[in-house]
Amino acid sequence: MEEQPVQDPQPTLAIDDIVRSHLKQIARWTQFLAIAIMIVLSLALFGVLCLAMLGTVSSVVSSKYYDRLRNINSGSTLLMICTILLFSMVGTYFLYRFSSQIRRALYGEDQKALEHSFSTLKIHWVIGVALAVILMVFNVIKNFLI
Amino acid sequence: MDTQEPQDQLTVTPALRENLHIAGNWARIVAILGWISAVVTVIIKFDKREFASALLTAGMAFVFNMFLYQFSKRISNALQSGDQWQLAEAFSNLKIYYMIIGWIVILLLALIVVCFIGIILFFVFLRQPL
Predict the structure, then answer these.
(1) Which residue of A18, A23, A128 is in closest CB contact with B30?
(2) Complex ipTM tops 0.90
(3) Min distance B123 CA to chain A CA atoms (Å)
(4) Of A14, A20, A128, which is closest to B84 when you measure between CB atoms?
(5) Cα separation, B87 vs B80, whole angstroms
(6) Rounded Cα–Cα distance for residues B97 and B63 (Å)
């Protein structure tokens, strides 16, 4: 009786030279993006904290320039901006982790790091989706409902 | 004498396959949400009569979310059919997506630096007596 070849239920795919080259480029760009975005977010957070301190000072000394910023310097608005910035920082941290895991996988032939990298990228996208939905809702409320 | 061919040590294991599948699905959600967000932004900008800004936002959002959507579609096809070319194209699309965002960030950072230098120079010249 002739034996039937056992078919692999999942087709085989390899991380060949072309895929490896694309992954290296992805790791390079995501690392740059994560660092650049983290710097911008840190500066923004610093700016928000400065604005909060300016609010305390201006309660004693009033300024005609500061009066223009008074509407965004309420406690709840600043807290919301700080929360969004901190969430964005967490999302960016996961992008950086994705980049470093891809690098470790490619340069150290680490299969586990490659497996974890796309799980990390998923977390980055989940945080991104949550932030995008929150910002979109605020944008719609601000422009159409208020 | 035996000559051993250099082999790729990294492979698409079932665990990686699962993570790629989930990442692909989330990439699709991000891309579709990006398009919806762009449409909302365009409506808001048209309402404020900012037509140039609306078209720029819509164009940019459409192009780079298209690459993310293509990544999602091709990674799904590659995992189903075992097509190596589709896998390579999927990662190529993800690379282009991050490259476009990277160049936008570089341009924005350059613009911020130029504006910052401009503000400093403005105040320096303002303080000088005529």
Answers:
(1) A128
(2) no
(3) 17
(4) A14
(5) 11
(6) 9
Cα A10 to chain centroid, rounded: 33
Taking CA atoms, A60 is separated from A3, A56, B3, B38, in Å, by: 90, 7, 82, 43
The answer to whether A111 contacts B92, with C-beta atoms less than 8 Å apart, is no
Digits of tens for pLDDT over chain B (130 positions)? Answer: 444 444 457 888 889 999 999 999 999 999 999 999 888 888 888 888 888 888 888 888 888 899 999 999 999 999 999 889 999 999 999 999 999 999 999 999 999 899 989 999 888 888 776 6
Q: In the 3-class helix/strand/coil scheme, how is chain B assigned residue by residue?
A: CCCCCCCCCCECCHHHHHHHHHHHHHHHHHHHHHHHHHHHHHHHHHHCCCHHHHHHHHHHHHHHHHHHHHHHHHHHHHHHHCCHHHHHHHHHHHHHHHHHHHHHHHHHHHHHHHHHHHHHHHHHHHHCCC
Residue where the block lists tokens 């300016």: A54
Nearest Cα of chain B lies from the Cα of A1 at a distance, in angstroms, of 30
Give the minimum alpha-carbon distance from B127 to chain A in angstroms, rounded to a whole number.
Answer: 20
Runs of H (alpha helix) within A59-74: 66-69
pTM of the model: 0.83
Chain A residues in contact with B95 (beta carbon < 8 A): 22, 25-26, 29
CB atoms within 10 A of CB A54: 15
Q: What is the pLDDT of residues A17-56, one digit of tens each?
A: 999 999 999 999 999 999 999 999 999 999 888 877 776 6
**DSSP conformational letter for A14:** B
